[in-house]
Amino acid sequence: MGEETTEKKVKTANIGDVIQISKGIEKGKKGKVVVLRENSVIAEIGKNKKTDEPIKTVVNHKNYKLVK
């Protein structure tokens, strides 16, 4: 019962949404959601300037805010 109420409070992002990370070493960075998981999202937070590959990070649903 306790899990259900906590899960409803956390507003999850969808693929393509822009999020701002609120905890961890990437705190304050914004990224675009590319993969949605049950407990987290994978967000692209930039590109590697040398190889032009995307830089991605995994963020728990509790550790980001949706950017409007």
Task: Kindly describe this structure.
The chain is globular. The protein has one helix at 2-9; strands at residues 18-21, 30-36, 40-47, 54-60, 64-66. It is mainly β.
Work out the strand percent: 35-45%
Average pLDDT taken over every residue = 89
What does the overall shape look like?
globular
Query: Helix share of residues?
Result: 10-25%
Largest sheet: 5 strands, antiparallel
Q: Give the helix tally.
A: 1
Strand order of the biggest β-sheet: 4-3-2-1-5
Distance between the termini: 31 Å
Class of secondary structure makeup: mainly beta
Counted beta strands:
5
Secondary-structure element order, N to C: HEEEEE
Uncertain regions spanning at least 5 consecutive residues? none
User: What is the radius of gyration?
Assistant: 13 Å
